[in-house]
Amino acid sequence: MELNPWGSSTIKDYDKLTREFGIQKMPNLGISNRYFRRGIIFGHRDFDKFWNADKRSVLTGIMPSGPMHLGHKMVVDQCVFYQSLGIKTRVLIADIEARVTRGISKEQAQKLALEEYLPNWIALGLDPKKADIYAQTNRSVPYYSFYSLLSGRITLNEMSAVYGNLTPGKITSALVQMGDILHPQLPEYDGPEHVLVPVGADQDPHIRLARGFAEKEHLIKPSATYHRFATGLEGGKMSSSRENSYIALNDPADVAVKKASNALTGGRNTAAEQKKKGGDISKCVVYELYAYHFAKSDKELAEIRRKCTTGEMLCGECKQMLAERVGEFMSSLAKKRERAKKEVGKMEIFR
Ligand code: SF4
């Protein structure tokens, strides 16, 4: 099994993944957030230490390199949850990484961040006044000094052991990420603290490297949670090169509704067969969309599951309800995003 933070990883067996990479399974801690309750966050490294710490923060990155979609929303929702608990939230705009790994200019990355990503983050609930939002190209001097120091403390062999084949761009990207994850603990910033990084499993190489560095630099090892991948609407992996594989947050509501209506189901070949055998939720993207985003409660999700697997409900009815939810959500998000754009206009991230 290979995890590639810059490419495409697909994971069929999350148990195998946790075993192979030493990720701890997420226990039931009674956390009142659907990503925890519904098992969407499947694993962690030292989450318990973060959860029980007095001094802690959450850190995540925005990579402005393509349309922001429902897959990205999963991280936003988690950060908004932590922020609602009063936990400091750090959001970095990975414009150096976008440049060195995707060839996106600083100007393009900044435009995307200001016009699409940050307005959507705020529309989804982030309070920018209570978050530390910064761009990699615009952080203060100690951040860069630290990043330079890190580059002198690791060998190419050590990096290759974690990442496999590397290019100069990937080496830069990995080191900048280390700087991002660890620098909050420097005396020039907030000092030693438990930093949680919520990620998809493909980002684990960065987490492992950062934890190794932390040990060497006598810093607290960062914690991480790992959530499941969002499946592409047609099944398989979501890809920014296939517009119909994702619902972009900036899609007009009618476009999003159409995409949801065409999403892959776990339906049987005929209505008669489905009534007899029930649907297969393990193959159903519609069910995943309910579980990740659109079921109003765990009770409702359980009812959808029951009706599906007993054949009481067929896919047409199920998709119709999802499409309505998607339409309502997208219309409401668009209004909030327009308001958020005014707020972003007043922010001084790139000045
Ligand atoms: S009834 Fe709903 S959950 Fe079941 S397979 Fe069809 S679309 Fe999926």
The share of residues in extended strands comes to 5-15%
By DSSP, the count of extended strands is 7
Instruction: Give Rg in angstroms.
Output: 21 Å
Q: What's the total helix number? A: 15
Q: Number of domains in the coordinates?
A: 2
Q: Please name the CATH architecture of the largest domain.
A: 3-Layer(aba) Sandwich
CATH superfamily of the largest domain: HUPs
What does this structure look like?
There is one protein chain. Helices cover 50% and strands 11% of the residues. The chain is of the alpha/beta class and 351 residues long. The protein folds into two domains: 14-229, HUPs (Rossmann fold, 3-Layer(aba) Sandwich), CATH 3.40.50.620; 243-338, Tyrosyl-Transfer RNA Synthetase (Orthogonal Bundle). α5 (95-102) runs antiparallel to α9 (168-182) and α7 (141-151) packs across α9 (168-182). The model has no long low-confidence stretch (mean pLDDT 91). It binds iron/sulfur cluster. Iron/sulfur cluster is lined by residues 265-267, 279, 281, 284, 286-287, 304, 308, 313, 315, 318-319. Residues 265-267, 279, 281, 284, 286-287, 304, 308, 313, 315, 318-319 line the site of iron/sulfur cluster.
Please give a handful of descriptors for the protein shown:
351 residues, alpha/beta, Rossmann fold, Tyrosyl-Transfer RNA Synthetase, seven-stranded mixed β-sheet, 7 strands, 50% helix, 11% strand
